[in-house]
Amino acid sequence: MRLTIFGATGGTGARLVRRALDGGDEVTAVVRDPARLPGELRSAADVVQADVMDPAAIEKAVTGRDAVITAIGTREGRAPTSVCADSAHAIAGAMKAAGTRRLVVVSASGLDAGPGDDPLTRFVVKPLILQRILKHAFADMRAAEDATRASGLDWTIVRPPRLTEGPGAGRYRKAVDRHVLGGFSMARADLASALLDLAGDASSIGHVVAVAR
Questions:
Q1: DSSP helix/strand/coil, 37
Q2: Is 173:212 a contact under the CB 8 Å cutoff?
Q3: I need a labelling partner for 75 at 20 to 30 A (CA). Which of 87, 142, 144, 182 fits?
């Protein structure tokens, strides 16, 4: 596939770029600071330095692509932020201008509680703990999801649980429009694999897909 990846210098994004390149995909990595991308990835990918919040600045980077994947996340911790929502609006605008349709967006499983969650997670962990501690980050992600749904593009929203480092298990579970039972964590490396799989999976268009170890 011809892929454009946003958030390529982050923990998930860098692994995503590496997995895509290893799999023979043609990768454009859109970054603010190319120096933050590992050297071997800079030499193998088409690296575009641009302001992701400016649709005009990123339109060329998404033109002619089979899929666009955004792994952009906040670095603000518990502070108010709008980076996910603002970037989602900008990326969608650039894609519509370029005529590119396929969009995969990384969100988070903690955003809501519902089918697939065990009782403790559904009634205690998510509503009483996670959604209070991470209320600003989650508000930003919800706004990004809303922008994605309203974009008119061929979107898939991917919701992973707590992400860990390391090589991963080489496999993952997924659930469509519901949560993964017992899906409390997964390796970023496995999330990268899931994102690539879903980018090429037309059956996931218009759905929220939960993934977990």
A1: coil
A2: yes
A3: 182
